[in-house]
Please model this.
Amino acid sequence: MAVTDTDYSDLPKESPVGEPLDWAWLRGVRSEWGVRPKPGPRGLTMMDIAVGDYGEVPDRPAHRSMAPRGADIEGETPDMGYILNKKSDVWAENVRELYEEAVARQCSATRDIPWGDLQELPDDVEHAICQVCTTLAEVEMIASDLPAKWMWRMNHDFLEAKMFLCTQIMDEARHSEVFRKRALANGGGLLKSRAGPSSLLRTIIEAKTYTQATALMHLLGEGFVLDLFRQGELIAPGPVEKKIFRMAMQDEARHVAYGTMHIRYAIEQDPDVADEIHAALDHGEMVLTEFGTSPDLGSALAVLLAGGVEHVEDKGFPMQGELIAKQFTSYLARCERAGISRLDRTEIPLDLLGIDPEKIRAMVA
Amino acid sequence: MTHVDTIELFDGMAKEMNTHPERFTPLGELELDLVCVMRSPRETERVRLVFDGLRCRVLASVEGDERGADCWLDGDVAAWRDMFDDIRAHGAATGGYTLNSLTLLGERIRLGGADPMGVDKFSRFNQSLQEFFDGAARLHLAAV
Model:
């Protein structure tokens, strides 16, 4: 209990307009007074202030209000309608660090991309990058909509997880922005949008639980897109597009890191959760494969990898096949790390892609 | 003359980072433990880079140390030399000589890690890491 030696007994009992006053907050409360966390070289981080009771995140919070965790909370608090009231529903051990990282590493699609350096491209290449940007502008925003759908349902004691998801929402808004801007900025425009991506996006947004949703979005969808952004080195027709992919890649990797470690935490706390995650990924992998091999995105990526339509068959498609194998290898390795091994269950044609499950097992062992 | 597979070059890059945080501030802090493995017929050298915030510490490293790092970059000395030559020639890595490009197909320098989360840190902090290596262009050391 916070204790004060100062005598405040002479303070008024009523406000100037006659309202009753309560000075309990001044006389001492049950919260931890005087913890005084020390700022580190970077300033005062969320890790620095996770001290004493303030740093303790309960497995099952007693309240369902927006009262700040660690405050002196009255017995009767309003129920905000939270349905994610177990820490394992949303938590990841790295979530505080990821929040600080996200805040420190924000960029601007307006200011930090050298838009003035865009170069005139051959017609087929401009069309291809515009098609890729069209698809990305469409799918990126799902990673804003999905956390927004669930955040108001998360118990407020899991504040750091909600704060991190706020940064993800901002990141994905920026990704939608930057790909839309690129589609328009060099004399091209937005191209084809078909049912394929919508089917994937509906699968993600309609997931029945948050943990299923995060498996579909963070682990599967964003993992796939993260590797696509890494491949921007080969896909991008010029330095401006390379910069776009590099900046987006850094953001996407944080989201994947949260999702992977959230799933790991959820399974560690309740191994039965693995079944529902597997069920979601069984379906998710199928629709993601349809999305990844869709006629628009797939062919546009192959054209970019080939540097134009002329070599799309002898260079573009073979290179694309190699990169898809890398994407699925990364995804399956992350699943191992998350504690949800898919190697004996997945319907992804590992043989066809040349993926050796034993190598993935050995990688993570 | 400084050989690329010696700690002197990496010490120089770390000093460049530690004395010029303004280059890294816009990119944000990083938290990464990375081992560079440089192989030649005569021997294999390892250098450990520990990034904390906007600072870097360079540590001599021995065989197997990379397993304890977040991730590692592993390639022939010739590949590392080509990368540094490109950085010195252009002031920063270009085209196929960026870290991301080199490791994407992994034909000459391979990105490895014992934990996929550690490997993904390479993506999370990629632009800071690239800025660190690009610092070699500003050193008064000729890397050979």
